[in-house]
Amino acid sequence: MSREISLSDSSCAIILTPDPHTFSNYTAIEIKHLHIDLAVDFDRQVLSGKVELNLRRKDTHAPLILDTRSLKIEDVYLGADRAEGQWSFGEEDVILGKALTIKLRPEDDKVEIAYSTHANASGLQWLTPLQTLGGKKPYLFSVSEAIHARSWMPIQDTPASRFTYSARISVPPQLQLLALMSAKNPKKRNLKTGVYRFKMNRPIPAYLISLTVADLRFRPLGPTNGIYGEKEIVDIASWEFADTEKMISAAEQIAGPYTDLWDRFDLLIMPPSFPYGGMENPTLTYVSPSVIAQDRSLVSIIAHELAHSWSGNLVTNATWNQFFLNEGLTRYFEFLIMESIDGNRRNADMNRVLSYQRLKEHLNAVDPLDPDTRLVMDLSNRDPELSVGAIAYEKGYLFFQSLEDVLGRKAFLEFLRSYLKTFSFQSVTADKLIAHLQAKVIQGDKELESRLNLDEWLYKPGLPKAHPVIRSEEFEKVSTQLSRFIKSHDAEEIDTQGWNTLHWVAFLKSLPLHIGKPALVGLDKKFGFTQIKNAEILSPWFVLAVENSYSETYPSIKSFLLEAGRIKLIKPVYVALTHTPESLQWAREVFANAKPRYHPATQSVISAILK
Ligand SMILES: [Zn+2]
User: Fold this and answer.
1) CATH code assigned at 427
2) pLDDT of residue 3
3) Is 393 a catalytic site residue?
C-alpha cells in the first residue's frame, strides 16, 4: 500500500512519500548511480568533495529533493554541460535534517553537488589516536543506519531507494591509512598517494554505504573472506572467527549462493566505541570487539550479520516502520545457521529462549495495548531509531518461527527462498510478503490462513495467544541449578560443568535482582566473574553487583564503562546505577570521563538515562 500526499508549495509540489523518514521524492526521480569523491581531513574532522548522481526521471517537472543533515553545500552543477544549478534548503527538522531542493531542466539526468560535512556529523565518528588500539593514528568510521547517511552525503536517504555506487576517497598519504567501504575493497594501504577507488555494482540503499579510514591490516580466512582490523587485534580475531567459511556454506544451504550476490564476505573489527554488535555493510561486515571472548562463544553475531546479506541487504524493508522484515527474519535465519554449524539445536534453542525472554521482558514493561508493540509500526514524526528493539528483533523472529511451525520447516524454507528470489535487490513492505505468501502457500486455503493468523501478528499489539513455545533442555538444567543456588546462596553447591556463555547469561539474568552481596561474593570467588573478559557475561554480572552494592567491583565496572561502547552491554549497567542517588552521582562522573570516547548514538542513549 502506498500513500502519496501532495502539499502545495509556492514553486513546486512536494511529494510526501510513503517513507516518513525522508524528504526525498524518490518515487518521482530515481537515482541510478552515485559517485562519491571525498577527501578525508582528520585535523578538521570533515569530509569534503562532491557527489555525482545519475538520475532516471519519472516526473520531468519535479525538482530533485534530497536528504541532508548539517551539510555545507558549496555548488551544484547540472547535466553534461555542468550548468550552475539553483538550490535551496528547507526548514530544519530535529529528526530528519533539511531537505535540499535542486531545480532541474527537463533534459538533466546528472547532478553534481560539491559539499563538506560538519565535524559533528551524526553518521561519522572521528577517533583520536588515543581512542584506538594502536594509539598512534586517527580512526574514522561511518554508521549510516538508519538515517545518518544524510549527514555525510546529500542523498535519497530511504531504504526504499537503491542504486549502485562508486567512490574515490583520498586520505593524507603521510598518515599511511587504509580506506574501506561497503564495496570491492583494497587489501593493502596505498602508501604513495593515499587515494582509494571503490565500486559497488549491486543496487543498495544509502544506509548500507559505509566508509572506514584507519591503520588497518588484512588477514585472509578463506578464498572469499577475510578479516580487517588494527594490527593489535587482527590475529586474535582471525582465530575467533576461523569458522566464517563454514557459516557461509551453512547460510548458502538455506538461502542460496552467496558469492553470486556480493562476491566477498569480509569482517572489519571495529574500535571498542562501536555502538552495536555488528553492522551488515555489504561485502564488509562491521564487528564489535566485544564479541571476541577468546573462546569463540559469541560468534553467532557473525551468523546474524551474514544472514543480513539476504534478509536486509538483498530484500530490504522499504521503511523503518517495518524493520522486522530486516531484523526478525535475520534472527530466524541466524538461529538456523548456528544450528547447522553446531550440528544440533542445543545453542540455537538457548538463543531462541533468550530471544523470547527479551520479548517478554519488554512486553511486561509496557502497556498491553501499546501500539509500538505492533510489528508494523508507525514512527511518523518520531526517530526511526525507536524501531531498534525487542519488537523488530524478537517478536519479528517469533512471527517467522510461527510461520515455520504452521507450515513445517521444509515448506517454510522453500517459501523463504522464493521470497528472496522474487524480491532480490528490491525494497519491500509487509504487504508484499503477505501477497507472496497468499500466492505461493495459502492459495485460498481458509483454514491454513486462519492458523497463520497474519493480521494479528502484523497489525495488533502484544503477542498472539497461539505463539511458538520454545523449550531448551540446557536451560532446564540452568533452572535446576538456579533454584538450588537461590535456596542455599552457596556457589559450591551448583553444578555448572559444560556451561558456556549462554548458560551463564541465562543464570545471571534469572537470579533475583536483590539476591544480596554475600551470594555474589561467593559466586565471584568461585567463578571470577569480575575478572572475566567476556562482555556478555560482564554486563548482567555488573547489573547484579550494582543492585546489591557489591562495591569492591566498582573499579572494574568503571573500566568496563570506560572501555566498552556497545549500547546493549553498557546501557543496563547505567540503568542499574540510577537506582540510588549515590550510584547515580558516581555514574554521572564515570560518564563524564567516558563520553568523549563514546559514539554519538551511545552518548545520546546514556545521556537520556542519566539526565
Ligand atoms: Zn541485524
Assistant:
1) 1.10.390.10
2) 32
3) yes
Average pLDDT (86-95) is 98
Residue 14 has pLDDT above 60, yes or no: no
Ligand 1 centroid to residue 409 C-alpha, Å: 22
Residue 464 counted as domain residue: no
**Are residue 510 and residue 597 in the same domain, yes or no?**
yes
**269 and 195, same structural domain?**
no
Separation of CA 434 and ligand 1 centre (Å): 22
Residues 295 and 338 both lie in one domain: no
Strand partners, 76: 113
- Counting the structural domains of the chain, the total is 4
Q: How many Cα neighbours within 13 Å face the side chain of 224?
A: 15
Among 410, 431, 459, the domain-final residue is 459
Ligand 1 centroid to residue 246 C-alpha, Å: 20
Full residue range of the structural domain in which residue 254 is found: 216-309
Residue 173 C-alpha to ligand 1 middle, in angstroms?
A: 35
3-state helix, strand, coil in the chain (%, to 5): 45, 20, 35
Please give the distance, rounded to the nearest whole angstrom, from the Cα atom of residue 330 to the centre of ligand 1: 6
The one-character DSSP state at 85 is P
Contact predicate 390/358, CB 8 Å = yes
Segment 461-490, tens digit of pLDDT: 999 999 999 999 999 999 999 999 999 999
pLDDT digits (tens, 9 = 90+) for 58-82: 999 999 999 999 999 999 999 999 9
We report the CATH number of the domain holding residue 283 as 3.30.2010.30
> What does the pLDDT read at residue 294?
87
In single-letter form, the type of residue at position 336 comes to L
Catalytic status, residue 305? yes
The average pLDDT across 91-117 equals: 97
Q: What DSSP string describes 382-433? A: S-GGGG-SHIIIIIHHHHHHHHHHHH-HHHHHHHHHHHHHHTTTEEE-HHHH
Q: Cα(187)–Cα(192) distance, rounded to whole angstroms? A: 15
What CATH number did the domain enclosing 489 receive? 1.25.40.320
- Last residue in a domain, options 406, 425, 459: 459
Q: What is the pLDDT of residues 189-198, one digit of tens each?
A: 999 999 999 9
Please state, in angstroms and rounded to a whole number, the distance separating the CA atoms of residues 346 and 329.
Answer: 20
Cα 405 to middle of ligand 1, angstroms: 22
Per-residue pLDDT band for 252 (boundaries 50, 70, 90) equals: very high
- Same-domain pairing of 537 and 425: no
As a whole number of Å, the end-to-end CA separation of the chain is 40
Do 286 and 345 lie in one domain? The reply is: no
- List, in sequence order, every residue forming a beta bridge with 126; answer none if it has no partner: 140
Backbone angles phi, psi at 353, to 5 degrees: -65, -40
Catalytic residue among 280, 305, 394, 536: 305
pLDDT band at 21 (very low <50, low <70, confident <90, very high): very high
What CATH number corresponds to the domain at position 56?
2.60.40.1730
Residue among 115, 332, 393, 574 flagged as catalytic: 393
269 belongs to a structural domain: yes
Cα 243 to averaged position of ligand 1 atoms, centre (Å): 20
Query: HEC profile for 117-142?
Result: CCCCCCCEEEECHHHCCCCCCCEEEE
Mean pLDDT of the residues in the chain:
95
Residue 529 pLDDT class (50, 70, 90 cuts): very high
